[in-house]
Amino acid sequence: MSRVLSWDRSVFVLLVVTVAVGAVVDPDFAGGSNLGFVLQDIGEIMLIALPMTFLIMTGEIDLSVASTAALAGCVLGWAWQASGSMAVAVLAAVGTGVVCGAVNGFLVTRLGLGSLAVTIGTLGLYRGLCYALLGDTTVADFPAGWTNLGFSSIPGTPLPYVTPLLVVLAIVFGVVLHLTRTGRWVFAVGQSVEAARFAGIPVARLKFRLFVVTGAVAGLAGVVYDLRFASARPDGALGFELAVIASVLFGGVSIFGGVGTMWGVVSAVLFLGSVRSLLQLQGVPGNALTIITGGLLLASVVIPVVAQRWSAFRERRGRALAAAAP
Amino acid sequence: MNGGLRRVLAGREAPVAGALLVVLAVTTAVNPRFLSDQGRFDLLVAIAITGLMAVGQTFVLVMRHVDLSVGSVLGLSAFMAGSAVRGDTGGPLVLALLVGVVVGVLAGLVNGALVAFLRLPALVVTLGTLYVFQGVQALLTGGTRINADQLPSSVVGFGVTGFLGVPWLMWVCLLAAALGGVFLRTRRSGRDLYAVGSNPPAAELVGIPVARRTLLAYMVSGACAGGAGVLFLARFGGVDSNAGIGYELPVVAACVVGGVNIFGGSGTVLGALLGAMLLKTMGVSLSALSVPEFWQQAINGLLLLVAITADRVVLLRRERAARVEAARHRREQADAEPAPPAAGAESPGHEGATTTEVVR
User: Fold this and answer.
1) Is residue A157 part of a domain?
2) Which residues of chain B does A114 touch, with a Cβ-Cβ cutoff of 8 Å?
3) What is the 3-state secondary structure (H, E, C) of B162-190?
4) What is the residue-level pLDDT of chain A in tens, covering all 326 positions?
5) For chains A and B, what is the number of CB pairs under 8 angstroms?
6) B73 phi, psi to nearest 5 deg
7) Using the beta-carbon criterion (under 8 Å), do B301 and A126 form an inter-chain contact?
8) Which parts of chain B sit beneath pLDDT 70?
9) Which of A17, A53, A323, B215 would bridge with B112, disulfide CB 3.0–4.6 Å?
10) For residue B340, what pLDDT is reported?
């Protein structure tokens, strides 16, 4: 890949092209109501992808985010029934996310365990606690004022209420990653943990905080999910972890850490959401859409490698030709 | 003899087997029907599918890779195998198994080629193929499902009958585990997988054909997942487009609980199989103890955390012991021959450093 067309820029171009093509092909696609639908559909994925970008950039991963979101969602339902106050319930839900993230962070940074194994474990643990809390029941008596936030639009616009939350958080996370010391630390740790440690960066503390933030945002995503479906259920957000990670990686973040941009990730989430919506409008069955997600994810890692090998090959051949013809 | 016994007890298999026995004993004591003929049969059927996939996953994990696509491969292979034998006449069971395994091997070939030849990160590749294979299966099924009445009785019967009181499904799993275990333990190419997983650049330097071994590991994992698809078809007497979704992480969990290191280099097929047995048995025994079944996931997650924490503690202890030993050695050597300290003191010091390096 040349510098002009880096991966994150390519994703942004893809997003623009998709939206343009979609608008031409299908008038429904560019309609306001569909735009609102897409934003609502990607809301939780986008939220969790923001802190996940930080985690993957430092070379860690959190597979427990969907279970954390579900547990926070269940706590929301449980606390609402117990306290009768939605404000308390939302606080309890986000607090649950913080605790879940802190447990992950403790196991990874204090005990030195691998985050992949730890979060596969807590994925099961947190999901199990969802069932322990709510059993097989669902809580569906949230006050209408709150659930309206989940599925109606901001008056006068086609945008769902989750939009400002997404925009503000995306900007905050983007600014922190690219314009602050913490962000530089994240890049440094991802490039080389050893070097970062020698440079005096508190690696363990940084990673612990990233896990906590990821948990908190996953908890928030659990609240958004509950309000969108107007119910708290133990099997909520099932399988979201892989969708989030796929989006982050497709957005150009290296799984080895140290490389990536926040706007690449945001473009990736929006792009995947638009493609899915466009194909759904064309009548492609939902499950088949996973081919697109998977194929794009593979393309995002295959194309740079193939391009690099191709240019290396051409350079070699060019040298050989130059040597052959004096 | 004594050394052999100690080695068995120090390994990762013994504690898992011990925990398995405790779970079985406690559950049987409380609910005698747990290990009745039917109870035992059901338990083994439940273990077989995860167990078979865990055997294949071990090959990939010891190489410091991972195969997240196994659930989708299971679904795809179950559907292809079911399509091959369904109909009025009905194909033989062998055909179903053949189709299932071939589909799995082909899927493994795709994963392996991407990881081995393009040197792409395994997590990303297999996450991608997880979605691709799942989508292919959805396109092929087109929302239809295969039911038990469309399948020949040989296939359906395979899922509910057994031999010597052990279900056929479990025999398949055990056969694969035996072959895989012997291969990894005794064959040179099997040992190569551990060498690659412990230190990939070093394995390359000593001339191990890393790409070929990687391809092999993924084909084995694919074959096992494909075989598991046929077991799934036989067990549930059918398949729909949701088959296998979400199976990948429990399989990895089973391997890790059984002592397969997620960072490569160590772990056995027997351990992975015991891990799968422990997790599945735990789940079934909870319902036998009339504990609400939904505690199962929480307890499985907790088990995984306990297992990796215990591994870590043991590792740190060994590291410390190795350091102490190296220091003692160094001191003794220095006392014995004070004249040329450089050469004498150098080599044990080196050894100590190497141990830490490998261990990390």
Assistant:
1) yes
2) 262-263, 308
3) EECCEEHHHHHHHHHHHHHHHHHHHCHHH
4) 445 567 788 888 889 998 888 888 888 777 777 888 888 888 899 999 999 999 999 999 998 999 999 999 999 999 998 888 889 999 999 999 999 999 999 999 998 888 888 988 898 899 889 988 888 778 888 888 788 777 777 877 778 888 889 999 999 999 999 999 999 999 999 999 999 999 999 999 999 999 999 999 999 999 999 988 888 888 888 878 888 988 898 888 888 888 889 999 999 999 988 888 888 888 777 777 778 878 888 887 888 788 888 888 888 888 888 887 76
5) 160
6) -60, -40
7) yes
8) 1-10, 88-91, 293-294, 338-360
9) B215
10) 55
With beta carbons less than 8 A apart as the criterion, state whether A120 and A63 touch: yes
| Cα of A123 to nearest chain B Cα, Å | 7
Distance (Å, rounded) from C-alpha A214 to C-alpha A245? 13
Subunit contact A287:B297, Cβ cutoff 8 A: no
B176 Cα to chain A: minimum distance (Å): 25
Q: Which residue among B121, B127, B304 sits closest to A124, beta carbon to beta carbon?
A: B304
Spell out which residues of chain B touch residue A124, defining contact as CB-CB under 8 Å: 249-250, 253, 297-298, 300-302, 304
CATH number of the domain at A274, please: 1.10.3470
Q: In B, which residues are within 8 Å of A245 by CB distance?
A: 127
Taking an 8 Å cut-off on Cβ atoms, the answer to whether B298 and A125 are in contact is yes
pLDDT for res B28: 82
User: Does residue A179 form part of some domain?
Assistant: yes
Distance of alpha carbon A268 from alpha carbon A248, whole angstroms: 7
**d(C-alpha A116, C-alpha A64), whole Å:** 9
The residue count for chain B: 360
The reply to whether A1 falls in a domain is no
Residues in chain A closer than 8 A to B250 (CB atoms): 124
CA distance B251 to B243: 15
Could you tell me if residue A2 is inside a domain?
A: no
**Inter-residue contact A48 to A260 (CB < 8 Å):** no
Q: Is A288's CB within 8 Å of B245's CB?
A: no
Which residue range(s) make up the domain with A270?
Answer: 7-324
Burial A122-141 (b: 16+ CB within 10 A, else e): bbbbbbbbbbbbbeeebbee
Report the number of distinct structural domains present in chain A: 1
For A61, the closest chain B residue by CA position comes to B123
How far B64 CA sits from the closest chain A CA (Å)? 12
Token digits of residue A218: 């996953």
Q: What is B2-292's CATH topology?
A: ABC transporter involved in vitamin B12 uptake, BtuC (1.10.3470)
Q: Could you give the CA distance from residue B81 to residue B235 in angstroms, rounded to a whole number? A: 13
Task: Please give the Cα distance from A76 to A65 (Å, whole number).
Answer: 16
